[in-house]
TrEMBL record:
Name of this protein: Multimeric flavodoxin WrbA
Classification via InterPro entries: Flavoprotein-like_sf
Domain of life: Bacteria
Gene3D superfamilies: 3.40.50.360
Length: 171
């Protein structure tokens, strides 16, 4: 992403996300080699994941819903991430500064909103959401907004997958 404040919005017409790193963390309690439903959505194991989180721009936590709530593995991961929150990056900022987070859940659809609310609140707390939102809003304002590439319902409905094998019915 250009750092100049006078950003040309044409630079965003053909979206390029080169250089971004994402880590997906599966918090299912199912033992390997059995494939969980969550594993069907992502392919990263929980063990030795800290170096991946440090290097990632995007952290996505996923897991099953058990008894109407997040799994104990999901809660444990959130607690471990919180415990590492006093570490610093190479710029002397807190280690999660400038990162964004997301959540993926499988299981009881009635509890997905509750589970997502809990994890997303935790992520916004440890990723310095307020500062990230202000910086991102400034960047988007200077760039003329978010590019339409990959974000057009009419293109999805017409079958465009933006290079992905995606089913527009399951966005």
């Amino acid at each position: 992403m250009p750092t100049d404040t006078a950003v040309n919005s044409a630079a965003f017409d053909a979206a390029s996300y080169d250089g971004l790193k994402a880590v997906y963390i599966n918090c299912t309690p199912k033992k390997s080699p059995e494939i969980s439903h969550t594993q069907g959505l992502m392919d990263t194991r929980l063990d030795e994941v800290w170096p991946l989180i440090e290097a990632a721009n995007i952290v996505v936590i996923g897991g099953p819903i058990w008894l109407g709530d997040n799994s104990s593995m999901t809660r444990m991961l959130i607690e471990r991430l919180y415990a590492m929150g006093d570490e610093f990056n190479e710029n002397g900022q807190y280690v999660y500064y400038g990162k964004v987070g997301g959540a993926i859940f499988t299981g009881n659809e009635d509890a997905v909103k509750h589970s997502a609310m809990s994890v997303l609140y935790s992520l916004q707390h440890i990723t310095f959401m307020s500062w990230n939102l202000m910086h991102m809003a400034s960047i988007l304002g200077n760039a003329g907004g978010i590019p339409a590439y990959g974000n057009s319902r009419s293109d999805w409905n017409a079958g465009e997958g933006f290079g992905l094998d995606a089913n527009p019915e399951y966005r």
